[in-house]
Model the fold of this input.
Amino acid sequence: MRMSARMEGDFVVFLIGMRINRLRSLRKWLPVAKAMPPMIKELRSNPAHGLLGFESFFNGRTTLMVQYWRSTDHLMAYAKDREASHWPAWKRFFREVYTSEAVGVWHETYTVSGYESVYVNMPEFGLGKAGELVPTTSVGDRGAERLAAVKGSR
Done:
């Protein structure tokens, strides 16, 4: 069955990851790699933080996590929250790893007001997992129709 994602209102797609530049510098990059799971656990345990969903990918030395957030305000509030897991991990990175070049970290933030999606023979995934999966017949069988339906609902 062909499905599409439906999200209420605007949202944020946040891409975040790391790249191991020096494999032998395990003591530098391993703490960076181990910092994300506690953050995700914390975010999943409290929906008020605004994380809607995420997917993780690995490609050799590089990781990629796609996160869906309710708003940039939610994302920035979490990043700056000194009581949350992110703040001490970020401080540790700058104190212990930043100048070593053993590991790189990166992120990209996109605010989304229009989107379209299709999932064929897929389990819940990506935006469809973060939002709601609906049959494409309810939002349009073609990409242009689905995109217009999203723009028209705002």
Remarks:
- The chain has a mean pLDDT of 93.
- The domain at 11-111 is CATH 3.30.70.100 (Alpha-Beta Plaits).
- The longest strand covers residues 11-20.
- The helical segments are 26-45, 72-80, 86-96, 126-130, 143-152.
